[in-house]
Amino acid sequence: MSLNGIWELKKIALRNLARHKVKTVLTSAAIMISVAVYIFMSSWLGGMAVESRRNIVNYDMSAAKLQTKLYFERKDELPSYENFKNWERYRDALNREGFNAAPRFVFNGTLFSNSGSAPMRFNAVDPAAEKSVLHYASYVDFGRYPQNGMFELAIGTTAAEKLRVGIPTRPRRLELEELIRQAAQSDTPNEEFIRSLYETANMSGGLFNVAAETHIAGNERMALKRNVSRGDLDRLWELIAATDRNNVRINAVIDIKAVPETIRPTLWEGELMTSLREEDKELVEAAYTYEEFIGVYLLTEEDEARKDQILSAMIRAGFRGAVRHVNQLVDAVVVGVINSPDPVPNGNIGYIPIDVLQDESGMMLEGAVTELLIRRKDAPYTELPGADESSKAIAAALERGLGEPLPDYLAVFFWMDYMKDYLGYEALQTTAPQVLAALLLFISFLGISNTILLAVLERTKEIGMMRALGMTDRQMITAYMLEAGFLGFIGSVLGMILGCIVNYPMVEYGLNISAMADSLGNSGVGFRVTAIMRSVWNIPVIFGSGITATVLASFMAYFPTRRAVKMPITDSLRFE
Amino acid sequence: MFQITKKNVSISVLTLLIAVATATPAPTAEELLRRVDNNEVYNTIEYEGEMIIEHNNRRFVKTMKAWGRGNTHSFIEFLNPEDRGTRYLRRDGRLFVFSPDMEDVMLISGHMLRESMMGSDMSYEDAINNEPLADRYDAVIAGSETLNGREAWVLDLTARRRTESYPKRKLWIDKENGDLLRYELFALSGARLKEFNLLRAEVIDGRRFPVESEVRDLLRRNSKTTFIMRNVVLDKPLPDAIFSQRNLKR
To answer: Could you tell me if A120 and A108 are in contact, meaning their C-beta atoms sit under 8 angstroms apart?
Structure first.
């Protein structure tokens, strides 16, 4: 079919659209809404995914971590016994190659306050180095970030609320009165000052209507006013810090990895030999001798390198005797509460200076760290780590800086290696709504198909007449496909415009979800976002959805029209 | 005036000799510690038990039937309605639990060992760690005290290895019958974590045996757990089948 022919058919198609204005408007509107919804959903979910990834990198993970390979294998257990020393040389080598590096020792424990306890993850950090790779320290809502040399903690806002530490944001009236009694110490101006910072919380408009609770005297929910100045918050923090409200105790166990000097026969046979890999059995058996006199297997191996191999084999086998747990209780004071855009640092997490945990009054670290966080020195805040911050690139830079290969037990892990579970979850989160939007789009195409089917039925006589005058079946089908294609095109263009209009404020200003995130306990509503949900301009999706909608709409006309042209011309002309 | 005479010297020497001959020499710290370890030696044990957990003004009573062999094998089955069917098997240093809700056996290992056992003041690790104290700690006698009307030696224990779960312990041992009246467990920093008090001991088959005791986890507010043992039978032959996985799953 020549271009001239298609041009003529186009005229017919447009004339038909103009003849049936109501149908044209309604069908185009359906497509417009579907395309707009799809564009908005894709851009919004894409934005959430990008924002989440940025938050993970900027507030929790940095670009990559240097860790022992065995730590990475068991990372979900936080195996603090898989640590390494002499990390300073790796940091210096990275610094020389243009990277910042921050040491961390990560361990589990329980934090006890005067009001309760909470399971926590503790990050022992070097405050200055930490700030060079992560940005959460800029989001200390109340108080300040811990300083070296002090048993000081910064904890997430969720933990602070649960443990009733720091400034309460939504206390009951009785709790507030107790706080005033303790913090103001009968000083009237201080009492008035604290009272002036709080107001009765508005419970009716929230997600969770708990108005019934307010009927109990003293149980009314109060709220810290939103417009309290930084100066007033600092003054309130100082008043609270003078009481024992912020005094806490860290209960943790120090995991120590060591080759056991003796192993009882029951453990040897019942646990060790049954769990060791076949290739490791010989190594372990050669290192121990059964001592009948005392009835135990005695370590006889003296070579330190072989002892390390034996230890690795035992750890890999999950042998309990190779890791011992020493109970520890450390007194500390909470000096800051973190409320960052990423929900993880706001959760049950505590940050404590690493230098105070080195000896028996701390966690007996003796210079060990579980990881070095790594970020390029000039890495822009808004960009995700690229190829120059990949694990390969960083490992190569590290080896260049060291002038020798990395020890075999250490490796660099990219942030995505660490976050595989989250990324899988994110894919599910972003795909499911898009599938729903695509379903909406599909339903609107069924509408087009229906419109064309009705049009074909209505115009059966007309089709018969045009075929009698010499129009071929192919031309007939093309004319109707063009008509449907125009419907799709009009709907798509309008949908793209509408989608962009709706998307614009979400890109420029975003949606503040902090109140909702607060009410959900800072859980991040599925994504790693707690403050502003933003959308992005997803250009391929915008144009792609428009083009797809036009082509699909055109295609939907094919089957009803083909059915119509199969009818004999005489039958078509007689059709009522 | 007192005169030094031959008679007086003879009386004094005689008195001294009698005193030396009749006085019991003070035991060494190591002897006391061995005595504590040996108190808990039995071939087998079978008893009905009650665990009363009081926490935050709430009281939970758990009843159980328990069997043990040496210090390596034990089997506990809970009988109270809330926990009926929950069974623990400790064998060769491993602790398994069968939960009727999950209908499966689970090995308690790693971080789970630090969790509270059935909501009590004891952790799983406390429950399975029973190597003799004398092999793990150096002891010194810190003095003697009267505890609940009983004269007791006070022992300070310091762990020999830095890998010991509780690096310091303090023990009160009855001077007369060797009962472990009380002990306290300390963290590496020296902070007190747990305390145990003997409430009642009975003579069973000629041996003193602790049948009622109390444990407090000092990090838990208003919390204590009381253990009561009834119908204790010692050294009765027990079939191997009791300490088997099959018995756990049955």
So the answer is: yes
